[in-house]
Design a protein that fits this description.
The complex is a heterodimer of chains A (337) and B (283).
Chain A: H1 2-9, H2 15-27, H3 35-61, E1 64-65, H4 68-71, E2 80-81, H5 85-92, H6 94-127, H7 130-145, H8 148-158, H9 165-172, H10 175-182, H11 196-224, H12 228-236, H13 241-269, H14 273-278, H15 290-299, H16 305-333
Antiparallel strand pairs in A: 1-2
Helix pairs in contact in A: 5-16, 6-7, 6-11, 6-13, 7-11, 8-11, 11-13, 13-16, 15-16
Chain B: H1 3-36, H2 40-43, H3 58-65, H4 73-104, H5 110-122, H6 125-138, H7 145-170, H8 173-181, H9 186-215, H10 218-223, H11 232-236, H12 247-277
Helix pairs in contact in B: 1-12, 3-12, 4-7, 4-9, 5-7, 7-9, 8-9, 9-12
The chains are: A mainly alpha (337), B mainly alpha (283).
Protein backbone atom coordinates (compact mmCIF):
# COMPACT_ATOMS: atom_id res chain seq x y z
CA UNK A 1 0.00 0.00 0.00
CA UNK A 2 2.60 2.50 1.07
CA UNK A 3 4.89 1.38 -1.70
CA UNK A 4 2.32 2.17 -4.35
CA UNK A 5 1.94 5.64 -3.02
CA UNK A 6 5.70 6.12 -3.15
CA UNK A 7 5.73 5.26 -6.81
CA UNK A 8 2.72 7.44 -7.42
CA UNK A 9 4.42 10.38 -5.78
CA UNK A 10 7.49 9.92 -7.92
CA UNK A 11 5.30 10.40 -10.98
CA UNK A 12 6.12 8.72 -14.27
CA UNK A 13 9.89 8.70 -13.79
CA UNK A 14 10.78 6.84 -10.61
CA UNK A 15 14.48 6.82 -11.42
CA UNK A 16 14.95 10.57 -11.22
CA UNK A 17 14.23 11.09 -7.51
CA UNK A 18 16.37 8.11 -6.61
CA UNK A 19 19.29 9.73 -8.37
CA UNK A 20 18.64 12.94 -6.50
CA UNK A 21 18.75 11.06 -3.23
CA UNK A 22 22.10 9.55 -4.14
CA UNK A 23 23.72 12.85 -5.06
CA UNK A 24 22.46 14.32 -1.83
CA UNK A 25 24.09 11.55 0.15
CA UNK A 26 27.35 12.24 -1.61
CA UNK A 27 27.07 15.92 -0.84
CA UNK A 28 26.95 15.30 2.93
CA UNK A 29 30.28 13.56 2.49
CA UNK A 30 29.26 10.34 4.21
CA UNK A 31 29.20 7.24 2.02
CA UNK A 32 26.10 5.07 2.57
CA UNK A 33 27.93 2.12 4.04
CA UNK A 34 29.49 4.31 6.71
CA UNK A 35 26.22 5.74 8.08
CA UNK A 36 25.32 2.87 10.47
CA UNK A 37 28.84 2.85 11.89
CA UNK A 38 28.70 6.60 12.45
CA UNK A 39 25.40 6.24 14.28
CA UNK A 40 26.74 3.39 16.34
CA UNK A 41 30.03 5.04 17.25
CA UNK A 42 28.97 7.23 20.22
CA UNK A 43 27.09 4.41 21.92
CA UNK A 44 29.85 1.95 21.23
CA UNK A 45 32.42 4.32 22.72
CA UNK A 46 30.33 4.68 25.88
CA UNK A 47 29.96 0.92 26.21
CA UNK A 48 33.66 0.39 25.54
CA UNK A 49 34.80 3.02 28.03
CA UNK A 50 32.33 2.33 30.81
CA UNK A 51 31.68 -1.40 30.53
CA UNK A 52 34.25 -3.24 28.42
CA UNK A 53 37.41 -1.46 29.56
CA UNK A 54 36.45 -1.76 33.27
CA UNK A 55 35.74 -5.43 32.63
CA UNK A 56 39.26 -5.87 31.29
CA UNK A 57 40.63 -3.79 34.16
CA UNK A 58 38.81 -5.91 36.70
CA UNK A 59 40.55 -9.02 35.38
CA UNK A 60 43.87 -7.19 35.23
CA UNK A 61 43.54 -5.90 38.79
CA UNK A 62 42.75 -9.35 40.08
CA UNK A 63 46.37 -10.32 39.27
CA UNK A 64 47.81 -7.31 41.06
CA UNK A 65 48.07 -6.00 44.55
CA UNK A 66 46.20 -2.70 44.54
CA UNK A 67 46.03 -0.65 47.73
CA UNK A 68 45.85 2.94 48.86
CA UNK A 69 49.11 3.96 47.21
CA UNK A 70 48.00 2.66 43.81
CA UNK A 71 44.64 4.41 43.74
CA UNK A 72 45.58 7.89 44.95
CA UNK A 73 44.95 10.60 42.38
CA UNK A 74 48.41 12.19 42.53
CA UNK A 75 51.48 10.19 41.61
CA UNK A 76 50.09 6.68 42.06
CA UNK A 77 52.65 3.91 42.43
CA UNK A 78 52.47 1.01 39.96
CA UNK A 79 50.61 -2.06 41.11
CA UNK A 80 52.70 -5.09 41.95
CA UNK A 81 52.00 -8.19 39.89
CA UNK A 82 51.16 -11.06 42.21
CA UNK A 83 49.99 -13.70 39.75
CA UNK A 84 47.29 -15.94 41.14
CA UNK A 85 47.91 -14.94 44.77
CA UNK A 86 44.58 -13.15 45.08
CA UNK A 87 42.76 -16.21 43.79
CA UNK A 88 44.57 -18.59 46.09
CA UNK A 89 43.83 -16.38 49.09
CA UNK A 90 40.16 -16.39 48.09
CA UNK A 91 40.13 -20.17 48.01
CA UNK A 92 41.96 -20.35 51.34
CA UNK A 93 39.56 -17.98 53.01
CA UNK A 94 36.67 -19.34 55.09
CA UNK A 95 34.68 -16.41 53.79
CA UNK A 96 34.76 -17.83 50.27
CA UNK A 97 32.75 -20.88 51.22
CA UNK A 98 30.31 -19.04 53.48
CA UNK A 99 29.68 -16.31 50.93
CA UNK A 100 29.42 -18.76 48.03
CA UNK A 101 26.99 -20.80 50.12
CA UNK A 102 24.97 -17.69 50.99
CA UNK A 103 24.94 -16.55 47.36
CA UNK A 104 23.83 -19.88 45.93
CA UNK A 105 21.29 -20.85 48.58
CA UNK A 106 19.75 -17.38 48.53
CA UNK A 107 19.53 -17.38 44.72
CA UNK A 108 18.04 -20.89 44.48
CA UNK A 109 15.43 -20.33 47.20
CA UNK A 110 14.51 -16.83 46.05
CA UNK A 111 14.27 -17.72 42.35
CA UNK A 112 12.12 -20.76 43.14
CA UNK A 113 9.77 -18.87 45.45
CA UNK A 114 9.55 -15.85 43.13
CA UNK A 115 8.69 -18.00 40.13
CA UNK A 116 6.16 -20.15 41.95
CA UNK A 117 4.40 -17.19 43.54
CA UNK A 118 4.67 -15.09 40.38
CA UNK A 119 3.25 -17.84 38.18
CA UNK A 120 0.39 -18.55 40.58
CA UNK A 121 -0.49 -14.86 40.72
CA UNK A 122 -0.23 -14.63 36.92
CA UNK A 123 -2.65 -17.55 36.54
CA UNK A 124 -4.93 -15.97 39.13
CA UNK A 125 -4.94 -12.61 37.32
CA UNK A 126 -5.94 -14.41 34.14
CA UNK A 127 -8.93 -16.00 35.92
CA UNK A 128 -10.14 -12.88 37.73
CA UNK A 129 -12.72 -10.51 36.29
CA UNK A 130 -11.38 -7.37 34.58
CA UNK A 131 -12.05 -5.01 37.51
CA UNK A 132 -10.56 -7.29 40.15
CA UNK A 133 -7.61 -8.05 37.90
CA UNK A 134 -6.79 -4.35 37.43
CA UNK A 135 -7.15 -3.82 41.16
CA UNK A 136 -4.62 -6.56 41.96
CA UNK A 137 -2.24 -5.43 39.19
CA UNK A 138 -2.17 -1.90 40.59
CA UNK A 139 -1.48 -3.37 44.04
CA UNK A 140 1.44 -5.53 42.98
CA UNK A 141 2.76 -2.60 40.95
CA UNK A 142 3.26 -0.74 44.23
CA UNK A 143 5.57 -3.50 45.50
CA UNK A 144 7.45 -3.65 42.20
CA UNK A 145 7.96 0.11 42.00
CA UNK A 146 9.41 0.53 45.48
CA UNK A 147 13.11 1.42 45.10
CA UNK A 148 15.47 -1.28 46.48
CA UNK A 149 16.74 1.00 49.23
CA UNK A 150 13.18 1.76 50.35
CA UNK A 151 12.33 -1.97 50.18
CA UNK A 152 15.18 -2.72 52.53
CA UNK A 153 14.31 -0.09 55.12
CA UNK A 154 10.60 -0.91 55.02
CA UNK A 155 11.21 -4.60 55.67
CA UNK A 156 13.73 -3.70 58.33
CA UNK A 157 11.01 -1.65 59.98
CA UNK A 158 8.39 -4.42 59.66
CA UNK A 159 10.81 -6.86 61.32
CA UNK A 160 12.05 -4.41 63.93
CA UNK A 161 12.68 -6.18 67.23
CA UNK A 162 10.79 -3.79 69.54
CA UNK A 163 8.11 -2.01 67.56
CA UNK A 164 7.95 -4.15 64.41
CA UNK A 165 4.58 -5.30 63.20
CA UNK A 166 5.81 -8.85 62.47
CA UNK A 167 6.74 -9.55 66.09
CA UNK A 168 3.39 -8.10 67.11
CA UNK A 169 1.58 -10.41 64.68
CA UNK A 170 3.55 -13.47 65.81
CA UNK A 171 2.59 -12.69 69.40
CA UNK A 172 -1.06 -12.88 68.36
CA UNK A 173 -0.70 -16.57 67.55
CA UNK A 174 -2.09 -18.83 70.27
CA UNK A 175 0.79 -19.85 72.53
CA UNK A 176 0.38 -23.59 71.91
CA UNK A 177 0.50 -23.14 68.14
CA UNK A 178 3.47 -20.82 68.27
CA UNK A 179 5.39 -23.22 70.53
CA UNK A 180 4.46 -26.15 68.35
CA UNK A 181 5.64 -24.54 65.10
CA UNK A 182 8.49 -22.30 66.21
CA UNK A 183 9.29 -23.70 69.64
CA UNK A 184 8.55 -20.41 71.36
CA UNK A 185 5.58 -18.27 72.24
CA UNK A 186 6.99 -14.87 73.14
CA UNK A 187 8.26 -12.86 70.18
CA UNK A 188 8.73 -9.51 71.89
CA UNK A 189 12.18 -8.16 71.15
CA UNK A 190 13.08 -10.97 68.73
CA UNK A 191 16.12 -9.59 66.87
CA UNK A 192 15.87 -10.74 63.25
CA UNK A 193 19.02 -9.15 61.92
CA UNK A 194 21.69 -10.43 64.30
CA UNK A 195 21.62 -13.99 63.11
CA UNK A 196 22.61 -14.83 59.51
CA UNK A 197 19.78 -17.32 58.97
CA UNK A 198 16.98 -15.02 60.11
CA UNK A 199 18.63 -12.10 58.29
CA UNK A 200 18.51 -14.09 55.05
CA UNK A 201 14.96 -15.14 55.81
CA UNK A 202 13.89 -11.49 55.86
CA UNK A 203 16.02 -10.78 52.78
CA UNK A 204 14.30 -13.62 50.89
CA UNK A 205 10.85 -12.33 51.87
CA UNK A 206 11.78 -8.78 50.85
CA UNK A 207 13.24 -9.78 47.47
CA UNK A 208 10.41 -12.19 46.64
CA UNK A 209 7.92 -9.47 47.57
CA UNK A 210 9.59 -7.01 45.22
CA UNK A 211 10.19 -9.38 42.30
CA UNK A 212 7.11 -11.60 42.02
CA UNK A 213 5.03 -8.81 40.37
CA UNK A 214 7.32 -8.79 37.32
CA UNK A 215 6.93 -12.56 36.93
CA UNK A 216 3.17 -12.35 37.44
CA UNK A 217 2.69 -9.63 34.84
CA UNK A 218 4.97 -11.41 32.33
CA UNK A 219 3.15 -14.71 32.81
CA UNK A 220 -0.16 -12.89 32.39
CA UNK A 221 1.06 -11.34 29.13
CA UNK A 222 2.11 -14.80 27.97
CA UNK A 223 -1.23 -16.35 28.94
CA UNK A 224 -3.12 -13.69 27.03
CA UNK A 225 -1.24 -14.71 23.89
CA UNK A 226 -2.44 -18.32 24.07
CA UNK A 227 -5.52 -18.83 21.84
CA UNK A 228 -8.55 -19.70 23.95
CA UNK A 229 -9.60 -22.39 21.42
CA UNK A 230 -6.88 -24.61 22.84
CA UNK A 231 -8.45 -24.48 26.29
CA UNK A 232 -11.92 -25.06 24.91
CA UNK A 233 -10.69 -28.13 23.06
CA UNK A 234 -9.02 -29.39 26.22
CA UNK A 235 -12.22 -28.89 28.18
CA UNK A 236 -14.19 -30.82 25.57
CA UNK A 237 -11.72 -33.64 25.91
CA UNK A 238 -12.34 -33.58 29.66
CA UNK A 239 -8.94 -32.29 30.79
CA UNK A 240 -8.53 -31.21 34.44
CA UNK A 241 -7.07 -27.88 35.55
CA UNK A 242 -3.67 -29.35 36.38
CA UNK A 243 -3.67 -31.34 33.16
CA UNK A 244 -4.38 -28.24 31.07
CA UNK A 245 -1.54 -26.38 32.78
CA UNK A 246 0.89 -29.25 32.18
CA UNK A 247 -0.12 -30.00 28.61
CA UNK A 248 -0.98 -26.56 27.20
CA UNK A 249 0.00 -23.59 29.35
CA UNK A 250 3.45 -24.71 30.42
CA UNK A 251 4.74 -25.91 27.03
CA UNK A 252 3.51 -22.73 25.32
CA UNK A 253 4.98 -20.47 27.97
CA UNK A 254 8.27 -22.35 28.09
CA UNK A 255 10.24 -19.64 26.27
CA UNK A 256 8.88 -17.03 28.68
CA UNK A 257 9.75 -19.19 31.67
CA UNK A 258 13.29 -19.84 30.52
CA UNK A 259 13.95 -16.10 30.13
CA UNK A 260 12.34 -15.36 33.48
CA UNK A 261 14.36 -18.04 35.26
CA UNK A 262 17.62 -16.74 33.86
CA UNK A 263 16.82 -13.07 34.51
CA UNK A 264 15.75 -13.81 38.08
CA UNK A 265 18.81 -15.94 38.71
CA UNK A 266 21.07 -13.17 37.48
CA UNK A 267 19.33 -10.53 39.58
CA UNK A 268 19.28 -12.65 42.73
CA UNK A 269 22.84 -13.87 42.38
CA UNK A 270 24.30 -10.41 42.73
CA UNK A 271 21.84 -8.93 45.24
CA UNK A 272 23.67 -6.12 47.00
CA UNK A 273 21.60 -3.10 47.99
CA UNK A 274 19.01 -4.92 50.10
CA UNK A 275 21.60 -7.15 51.78
CA UNK A 276 23.91 -4.21 52.50
CA UNK A 277 21.13 -2.26 54.17
CA UNK A 278 19.53 -5.16 56.05
CA UNK A 279 22.89 -6.39 57.34
CA UNK A 280 23.86 -2.85 58.31
CA UNK A 281 26.90 -2.57 56.03
CA UNK A 282 29.90 -4.87 56.22
CA UNK A 283 29.98 -5.61 59.96
CA UNK A 284 28.56 -9.13 59.86
CA UNK A 285 31.12 -11.10 57.85
CA UNK A 286 29.12 -14.28 58.28
CA UNK A 287 26.30 -12.77 56.20
CA UNK A 288 28.47 -11.86 53.18
CA UNK A 289 27.50 -12.98 49.73
CA UNK A 290 30.01 -12.71 46.90
CA UNK A 291 29.20 -9.12 45.91
CA UNK A 292 29.15 -7.85 49.49
CA UNK A 293 32.42 -9.64 50.23
CA UNK A 294 34.04 -8.14 47.13
CA UNK A 295 32.84 -4.70 48.21
CA UNK A 296 34.05 -5.22 51.78
CA UNK A 297 37.57 -6.22 50.71
CA UNK A 298 37.90 -3.34 48.27
CA UNK A 299 36.39 -0.49 50.27
CA UNK A 300 37.16 -1.06 53.94
CA UNK A 301 40.52 0.05 55.22
CA UNK A 302 43.06 -0.99 54.22
CA UNK A 303 41.54 -1.40 50.76
CA UNK A 304 42.47 -4.62 48.98
CA UNK A 305 41.25 -3.75 45.50
CA UNK A 306 43.06 -6.65 43.82
CA UNK A 307 41.45 -9.19 46.11
CA UNK A 308 38.04 -7.53 45.68
CA UNK A 309 38.48 -7.62 41.91
CA UNK A 310 39.34 -11.32 42.03
CA UNK A 311 36.10 -12.04 43.91
CA UNK A 312 34.23 -9.95 41.34
CA UNK A 313 35.83 -12.04 38.57
CA UNK A 314 34.55 -15.22 40.20
CA UNK A 315 31.06 -13.74 40.49
CA UNK A 316 31.10 -12.50 36.88
CA UNK A 317 32.31 -15.85 35.59
CA UNK A 318 29.41 -17.64 37.28
CA UNK A 319 26.96 -15.10 35.89
CA UNK A 320 28.38 -15.23 32.38
CA UNK A 321 27.75 -18.96 32.24
CA UNK A 322 24.10 -18.30 33.16
CA UNK A 323 23.99 -15.39 30.68
CA UNK A 324 25.24 -17.67 27.94
CA UNK A 325 22.10 -19.76 28.31
CA UNK A 326 19.98 -16.60 28.19
CA UNK A 327 21.67 -15.17 25.10
CA UNK A 328 21.38 -18.48 23.29
CA UNK A 329 17.69 -18.50 24.06
CA UNK A 330 17.15 -14.95 22.83
CA UNK A 331 19.15 -15.56 19.66
CA UNK A 332 16.99 -18.60 19.01
CA UNK A 333 13.66 -16.88 19.56
CA UNK A 334 14.34 -13.40 18.23
CA UNK A 335 15.57 -11.87 15.02
CA UNK A 336 19.05 -10.77 16.02
CA UNK A 337 20.13 -11.50 12.47
CA UNK B 1 -23.41 -29.32 45.93
CA UNK B 2 -25.18 -27.99 42.86
CA UNK B 3 -23.12 -26.50 40.02
CA UNK B 4 -24.28 -22.91 40.59
CA UNK B 5 -23.20 -22.85 44.22
CA UNK B 6 -19.97 -24.49 43.23
CA UNK B 7 -19.31 -21.87 40.60
CA UNK B 8 -20.11 -19.10 43.05
CA UNK B 9 -17.83 -20.62 45.65
CA UNK B 10 -15.05 -20.84 43.08
CA UNK B 11 -15.49 -17.21 42.15
CA UNK B 12 -15.46 -16.27 45.81
CA UNK B 13 -12.24 -18.22 46.43
CA UNK B 14 -10.56 -16.56 43.44
CA UNK B 15 -11.52 -13.08 44.58
CA UNK B 16 -10.39 -13.86 48.11
CA UNK B 17 -7.01 -14.99 46.75
CA UNK B 18 -6.82 -11.78 44.69
CA UNK B 19 -7.43 -9.68 47.78
CA UNK B 20 -4.82 -11.66 49.74
CA UNK B 21 -2.23 -11.01 47.02
CA UNK B 22 -3.19 -7.35 46.96
CA UNK B 23 -2.78 -7.04 50.73
CA UNK B 24 0.59 -8.84 50.74
CA UNK B 25 1.87 -6.52 48.00
CA UNK B 26 0.46 -3.30 49.36
CA UNK B 27 0.82 -3.69 53.12
CA UNK B 28 4.56 -2.82 53.36
CA UNK B 29 4.02 0.26 51.19
CA UNK B 30 0.96 1.20 53.25
CA UNK B 31 2.96 0.76 56.43
CA UNK B 32 5.77 2.93 55.05
CA UNK B 33 3.39 5.78 54.20
CA UNK B 34 1.36 5.59 57.41
CA UNK B 35 4.46 5.43 59.61
CA UNK B 36 5.64 8.63 57.95
CA UNK B 37 2.49 10.35 59.26
CA UNK B 38 2.43 8.88 62.77
CA UNK B 39 3.68 10.81 65.77
CA UNK B 40 6.55 9.11 67.57
CA UNK B 41 4.44 7.69 70.42
CA UNK B 42 2.39 5.77 67.83
CA UNK B 43 5.57 4.48 66.15
CA UNK B 44 7.59 3.29 69.11
CA UNK B 45 4.94 1.07 70.61
CA UNK B 46 4.36 -2.65 70.87
CA UNK B 47 0.68 -2.33 70.06
CA UNK B 48 -0.75 -2.25 66.56
CA UNK B 49 -1.93 1.12 65.32
CA UNK B 50 -3.49 0.60 61.89
CA UNK B 51 -3.44 4.23 60.82
CA UNK B 52 -2.11 7.53 62.19
CA UNK B 53 -4.60 9.03 64.62
CA UNK B 54 -4.42 11.96 64.30
CA UNK B 55 -2.04 12.21 61.32
CA UNK B 56 1.03 14.30 62.00
CA UNK B 57 3.23 16.16 59.53
CA UNK B 58 6.13 16.25 62.00
CA UNK B 59 8.37 13.78 60.22
CA UNK B 60 7.68 15.05 56.73
CA UNK B 61 8.40 18.64 57.67
CA UNK B 62 11.40 17.57 59.76
CA UNK B 63 13.10 15.75 56.86
CA UNK B 64 12.76 18.94 54.83
CA UNK B 65 13.94 21.39 57.48
CA UNK B 66 16.36 19.50 59.69
CA UNK B 67 17.05 16.75 57.17
CA UNK B 68 19.69 14.11 57.73
CA UNK B 69 23.50 14.01 57.61
CA UNK B 70 23.57 17.80 57.75
CA UNK B 71 21.33 18.63 54.79
CA UNK B 72 17.63 18.88 54.02
CA UNK B 73 16.29 16.03 51.88
CA UNK B 74 15.58 18.71 49.25
CA UNK B 75 19.31 18.66 48.63
CA UNK B 76 19.38 14.88 48.11
CA UNK B 77 16.24 14.87 45.99
CA UNK B 78 17.79 17.63 43.89
CA UNK B 79 21.05 15.68 43.50
CA UNK B 80 19.13 12.57 42.52
CA UNK B 81 17.11 14.56 40.00
CA UNK B 82 20.21 16.16 38.48
CA UNK B 83 21.94 12.81 38.12
CA UNK B 84 18.91 10.97 36.76
CA UNK B 85 17.81 13.67 34.29
CA UNK B 86 21.32 14.27 32.91
CA UNK B 87 21.98 10.56 32.55
CA UNK B 88 18.63 10.09 30.81
CA UNK B 89 19.13 12.94 28.32
CA UNK B 90 22.68 11.86 27.43
CA UNK B 91 21.66 8.23 27.26
CA UNK B 92 18.65 8.96 25.08
CA UNK B 93 20.81 10.60 22.41
CA UNK B 94 23.29 7.72 22.28
CA UNK B 95 20.55 5.12 22.45
CA UNK B 96 18.47 6.67 19.67
CA UNK B 97 21.43 6.85 17.31
CA UNK B 98 22.54 3.28 18.03
CA UNK B 99 18.97 1.93 17.87
CA UNK B 100 18.48 3.59 14.47
CA UNK B 101 21.67 2.00 13.20
CA UNK B 102 20.60 -1.43 14.38
CA UNK B 103 16.97 -1.24 13.31
CA UNK B 104 17.39 0.57 9.98
CA UNK B 105 20.63 -0.63 8.43
CA UNK B 106 22.17 -3.93 7.52
CA UNK B 107 25.88 -3.96 8.21
CA UNK B 108 28.59 -6.41 8.95
CA UNK B 109 28.81 -6.32 12.73
CA UNK B 110 25.11 -5.90 13.41
CA UNK B 111 24.55 -9.32 14.97
CA UNK B 112 27.78 -9.10 16.95
CA UNK B 113 26.72 -5.73 18.32
CA UNK B 114 23.32 -7.05 19.41
CA UNK B 115 24.90 -10.02 21.15
CA UNK B 116 27.41 -7.69 22.79
CA UNK B 117 24.47 -5.64 24.10
CA UNK B 118 22.87 -8.72 25.63
CA UNK B 119 26.08 -9.85 27.27
CA UNK B 120 27.12 -6.50 28.76
CA UNK B 121 23.62 -6.11 30.19
CA UNK B 122 24.26 -9.20 32.23
CA UNK B 123 27.65 -8.23 33.62
CA UNK B 124 26.95 -7.40 37.27
CA UNK B 125 27.38 -3.68 37.87
CA UNK B 126 28.65 -4.54 41.33
CA UNK B 127 31.61 -6.30 39.72
CA UNK B 128 32.55 -3.20 37.71
CA UNK B 129 32.47 -1.11 40.87
CA UNK B 130 36.17 -1.54 41.69
CA UNK B 131 37.65 -0.69 38.26
CA UNK B 132 35.19 2.17 37.76
CA UNK B 133 36.07 3.52 41.19
CA UNK B 134 39.79 3.64 40.37
CA UNK B 135 39.00 5.14 36.97
CA UNK B 136 36.82 7.87 38.47
CA UNK B 137 39.53 8.61 41.04
CA UNK B 138 42.21 8.88 38.40
CA UNK B 139 40.11 11.23 36.27
CA UNK B 140 39.48 13.47 39.27
CA UNK B 141 35.75 12.77 39.12
CA UNK B 142 35.49 11.37 42.64
CA UNK B 143 32.90 13.36 44.64
CA UNK B 144 31.50 14.83 41.42
CA UNK B 145 27.96 14.25 40.26
CA UNK B 146 29.38 14.20 36.72
CA UNK B 147 31.16 10.92 37.42
CA UNK B 148 27.94 9.38 38.67
CA UNK B 149 26.04 10.69 35.62
CA UNK B 150 28.50 9.16 33.16
CA UNK B 151 28.48 5.81 34.92
CA UNK B 152 24.70 5.69 34.90
CA UNK B 153 24.69 6.42 31.18
CA UNK B 154 26.94 3.39 30.72
CA UNK B 155 24.83 1.19 32.98
CA UNK B 156 21.53 2.00 31.30
CA UNK B 157 22.63 2.29 27.66
CA UNK B 158 22.64 -1.39 26.64
CA UNK B 159 19.08 -1.92 27.81
CA UNK B 160 17.91 1.38 26.30
CA UNK B 161 19.29 0.47 22.88
CA UNK B 162 17.78 -3.00 23.15
CA UNK B 163 14.36 -1.62 24.02
CA UNK B 164 14.41 1.32 21.62
CA UNK B 165 15.35 -0.68 18.55
CA UNK B 166 11.93 -2.37 18.53
CA UNK B 167 10.27 1.06 18.50
CA UNK B 168 12.43 2.25 15.60
CA UNK B 169 11.78 -0.96 13.69
CA UNK B 170 8.02 -0.43 14.14
CA UNK B 171 8.07 2.82 12.12
CA UNK B 172 7.29 1.94 8.49
CA UNK B 173 10.35 2.41 6.32
CA UNK B 174 8.21 3.76 3.47
CA UNK B 175 7.68 7.03 5.34
CA UNK B 176 11.40 7.76 5.26
CA UNK B 177 11.66 6.72 1.63
CA UNK B 178 8.87 9.12 0.78
CA UNK B 179 10.72 11.88 2.58
CA UNK B 180 13.92 11.15 0.64
CA UNK B 181 12.02 11.19 -2.60
CA UNK B 182 10.63 14.58 -1.68
CA UNK B 183 14.22 15.72 -1.52
CA UNK B 184 14.87 15.75 2.20
CA UNK B 185 18.38 14.98 3.40
CA UNK B 186 19.33 12.33 5.89
CA UNK B 187 19.21 14.64 8.87
CA UNK B 188 15.85 16.19 7.96
CA UNK B 189 14.36 12.76 7.39
CA UNK B 190 15.60 11.59 10.78
CA UNK B 191 14.49 14.70 12.63
CA UNK B 192 11.18 15.40 10.90
CA UNK B 193 9.95 11.89 10.11
CA UNK B 194 11.56 9.24 12.27
CA UNK B 195 12.02 11.18 15.50
CA UNK B 196 8.37 12.25 16.05
CA UNK B 197 7.21 8.70 15.43
CA UNK B 198 9.76 7.14 17.78
CA UNK B 199 9.19 9.78 20.48
CA UNK B 200 6.66 7.74 22.53
CA UNK B 201 9.08 4.82 22.59
CA UNK B 202 11.89 7.17 23.52
CA UNK B 203 9.83 8.45 26.44
CA UNK B 204 9.15 4.92 27.67
CA UNK B 205 12.82 3.98 27.39
CA UNK B 206 13.86 7.19 29.13
CA UNK B 207 11.48 6.58 32.01
CA UNK B 208 12.98 3.16 32.48
CA UNK B 209 16.49 4.66 32.52
CA UNK B 210 15.31 7.35 34.91
CA UNK B 211 13.98 4.79 37.40
CA UNK B 212 17.18 2.74 37.21
CA UNK B 213 19.35 5.79 37.82
CA UNK B 214 17.07 7.21 40.51
CA UNK B 215 17.26 3.92 42.43
CA UNK B 216 20.98 3.32 41.89
CA UNK B 217 22.74 2.78 45.21
CA UNK B 218 26.16 1.08 45.02
CA UNK B 219 27.93 3.61 42.80
CA UNK B 220 26.39 6.59 44.56
CA UNK B 221 27.61 5.06 47.82
CA UNK B 222 31.22 4.59 46.74
CA UNK B 223 31.85 7.45 44.33
CA UNK B 224 30.49 10.24 46.52
CA UNK B 225 32.02 11.04 49.88
CA UNK B 226 30.84 14.63 50.25
CA UNK B 227 27.54 14.63 52.15
CA UNK B 228 26.25 17.64 50.23
CA UNK B 229 26.40 15.52 47.05
CA UNK B 230 24.66 12.39 48.31
CA UNK B 231 21.77 11.09 46.30
CA UNK B 232 18.54 10.12 48.03
CA UNK B 233 19.17 6.34 48.29
CA UNK B 234 22.53 6.97 49.99
CA UNK B 235 21.17 9.63 52.34
CA UNK B 236 18.44 7.25 53.48
CA UNK B 237 20.76 5.07 55.52
CA UNK B 238 21.79 7.95 57.77
CA UNK B 239 18.44 7.81 59.52
CA UNK B 240 19.65 4.52 60.98
CA UNK B 241 21.48 5.52 64.15
CA UNK B 242 23.99 3.71 66.33
CA UNK B 243 21.48 2.99 69.10
CA UNK B 244 18.06 3.79 67.70
CA UNK B 245 16.60 4.36 64.26
CA UNK B 246 14.49 7.38 63.35
CA UNK B 247 11.71 5.30 61.79
CA UNK B 248 9.38 8.25 61.25
CA UNK B 249 12.06 10.17 59.37
CA UNK B 250 13.27 7.23 57.31
CA UNK B 251 9.72 6.31 56.27
CA UNK B 252 8.95 9.92 55.32
CA UNK B 253 12.11 10.05 53.20
CA UNK B 254 11.40 6.64 51.63
CA UNK B 255 7.89 7.75 50.74
CA UNK B 256 9.22 10.90 49.08
CA UNK B 257 11.73 8.82 47.13
CA UNK B 258 9.11 6.27 46.03
CA UNK B 259 6.44 8.69 44.75
CA UNK B 260 8.09 9.67 41.43
CA UNK B 261 9.01 6.07 40.68
CA UNK B 262 5.47 4.89 41.35
CA UNK B 263 4.00 7.50 39.02
CA UNK B 264 6.43 6.67 36.23
CA UNK B 265 5.88 2.99 36.79
CA UNK B 266 2.17 3.14 36.23
CA UNK B 267 2.86 5.07 33.01
CA UNK B 268 5.18 2.57 31.36
CA UNK B 269 4.26 -0.68 33.06
CA UNK B 270 3.13 -2.49 29.95
CA UNK B 271 6.10 -1.54 27.78
CA UNK B 272 8.51 -2.51 30.51
CA UNK B 273 7.38 -6.11 30.50
CA UNK B 274 7.62 -6.37 26.74
CA UNK B 275 11.05 -4.75 26.82
CA UNK B 276 12.43 -7.06 29.47
CA UNK B 277 11.06 -10.28 28.11
CA UNK B 278 12.19 -9.09 24.67
CA UNK B 279 9.97 -10.93 22.28
CA UNK B 280 10.05 -14.26 24.05
CA UNK B 281 6.33 -13.94 24.71
CA UNK B 282 5.57 -13.92 21.04
CA UNK B 283 7.75 -17.02 20.62
Amino acid sequence: MAQTSTVARGGGEPSAPVRRHKTQARRTGLPDWLVPYALLLPGLLVIAALLLYPLYQMVDMSFHQVGLRQIRAINPSPAEFVGLDNYSSILDSDLFWTSLRNTVIFAVVTVALTLILGTLVGLLLNKLGPKMSTFVVVGIMAAWATPPTAQAVVWKWLFDSDAGVVNWALNLLPDWLSSLVFGRSDWSGQPWFNDTITLYLVLIIAVVWASFPFIAVSVLAGLKSIPSELYEAARMDGATGVGTFRKITFPLLKPVFSVLVVLSTIWDFKVFTQLYLLAGGTVNRDAFNLSLWSYAEAFSSPPKMGLGAAIAVVLTAILLVITFVYVRNIVKTEDVR
Amino acid sequence: MNPVTRKRLGRFALNAAGIAVFLFAVFPVYWMVTTAFKPNDQIFTTSFIPFPNPPSMDHVSRVFTEGVAGHSVWRYLLNSTIVALSAVVLGAVFALLAATAVARFKFRFRTSFLILLLIVQMVPAEALLIPLFTMVKRLGLYDQLLGLILINVGLTLPFSVWMLRTFVAAVPKELEEASWIDGAGRFTTFWRVLFPLVAPGLVATSIFAFITTWNEFVFALTLIGDQAKYTMPVALQFFVGQRSTDWGGIMAASTLMTIPVLIFFLLVQRRMVSGLVAGAVKG
